[in-house]
Fold this protein.
Amino acid sequence: MMKALQLDIDGRPALKSLPCPEPGPGETLLRVSHCAICRTDAKMSLAGHRDLSLPRVPGHEIVGKDETDGSFYLVWPGHACEACEPCRSGRENLCDRMRILGFHRDGGFAQWVTVPKASLIPVSPGLPGRIACLTEPLACTLNALELSGLSAGQRVLIFGAGPVGLMMALSAHSLGALVHIVECDSLKLELSGRFREAVGVEASTGCPDEPYHVAVNAAPSPVTLQQGISRLKPGGLFCLFSGFIGDFSIPGALLNELHYRQLRVAGAYGCTRKNMMQALSLLADHARIAELLIEEVIGLEESVDAMDRMLSARTMKFVIEF
């Protein structure tokens, strides 16, 4: 038996003792060392998720140890078919038959987890697991910026100074872009101050008047769409990174902006294994800065309280250490 946090059939999180999973063909059993809590993990306990089936052990930002050889691995949380057109073209994050740890199958809020061998990425012994488990959200930001075509010297506007918005800033800065973060919550802006100072990015509570090549929403408010498009240079791109909350309509005038100024809108979802390896390298180069994203390293027994605190959106990352 093992200790785990499980979302019950009604979505409520509870600490439980569950049978240890058995690896199937092509799978590896990992002893989880660290698993970061994503805000999606906290939100879906209340509102569900498109890909979530219950009951479920959540957790998709995983680092674990293969006890058979003593090696530590990062886990790409997807399991793609590897045969469809997206998979064959290196866009396995868009596979129609995707199965995601923590959503379709049990994830890393447990002492043990089974994962496809194809999803394992070796972790250097010099990179602490508490930092390495931040790789997946960072990889998602790299996927978004790759789709946006952002390059050195260009200006990018990021909406949201939460952990993912800050990771987006680190990724954009590593590409040589000029970064500005907009965060309407002054307390969140203050909370992010040490990280922003370490990376060297500007921030404000309102949108600057300057034009930008790329705008990205790392916040769920539909207002960011209108604000972002209005700040784009002709030919610029708005990257829809965070899904919007609630029903909303798009004004015709905003669509005309796309038409007259040849603006583009692109969606970005998840990440590929290539993005994961890129992000792991980026974390290794900026480990001290990345550690500023960690609010607290906690035990599994503290995870339910941490998920409740994350719903306020005024915390950084919590990392469960086993």
